[in-house]
Amino acid sequence: MAEQKVKTALVTGSTDGVGRVVAKRLAQDGIRVLVHGRDHGRGASLVAEIKDAGGAAEFFAADFAALAEVRRLAAAVSKTNDRLDLLINNAGIGSAGPRETSADGYELRFAVNYLAGFLLTDLLLPLLKKGKPARIVNVSSLGQQAIDFADVMLTHGYSGSRAYCQSKLAQIMFTIDLAAELKGTGVSVNALHPATYMNTTMVRRAGVTPLSSVEQGADAILNLATGKAIAGRNGLFFNGLQEARADAQAYDAAARQRLRRLSLELTGVGSATV
Q1: Domains and CATH numbers, the chain
Q2: Among 106, 164, 197, 251, the one annotated catalytic
């Protein structure tokens, strides 16, 4: 494997919506982009668009509804890269539709929006540490709801909104814990709500009229991903470009510990610590 000199970023869920905009803008800045999505056609078209504009990109297909595919993605990235400078956990699904389960039998929104990113980050930490100073950005939401640990998989009284909101809060709780674990490694992690009701497929499927653009959301994501003012800042939640407070449960150490134990059990990883 040849030593990499150009910075490399993996952007999950980058074949559509705000992730696609972020991927193109990173490439415009000279960063080699690892594009991720489920659709090979959209992935190929984005890679071609980036290359036609003079950038560098490679597509990796994986369905985050299966943890085996997350592992396969991490293995493929690790095989072809000796370091990773940036990981943007952007892939996710919205609140529309009935209760569904993942390939592993977990509530689908919790699995795709949270567990997949938890596992992927753990598996890619060795590459991120080699890319230090490296950054992790977890794309969350202002839509948050405290996790009911007695029914995390929402088998009773299911609500798509509740499922989405608890998965997004889980991302923030993970961000806070991971930041503490990564202290001194040269890897930082922050989470954000990029923008409210962006003009994305997810928002349109929910029957909501968009209130902001994917370009606005991309500005906020890139602020955490490459912004100079964010260097050295860690374990924070942002609303757009401004630091904000998440749901109170995010700052409950006991709740975060319960989530961590559950996440390790569900993903089967031995440890997510440094």
Answers
A1: 8-266 (3.40.50.720)
A2: 164
**164 a catalytic residue:** yes
Handedness of CA 44, 62, 79, 183 (dihedral sign): positive
Dihedral over Cα of 131, 135, 136, 137: its sign: negative
Provide the 3-class DSSP secondary structure of residue 199. Answer: coil
pTM for the whole structure: 0.93
| Of 30, 190, 178, 164, the residue nearest 92 (C-alpha) | 164
Compute the distance between CA of residue 95 and CA of residue 117 in angstroms, rounded to an integer.
Answer: 18
- Tens digit of pLDDT for each residue in 92-134? 999 989 999 999 999 999 999 999 999 999 999 999 999 999 9
Dihedral Cα 261, 124, 237, 256, nearest 10 deg? 10
For residue 242, give the nearest of 208, 193, 174, 173 by alpha carbon: 193
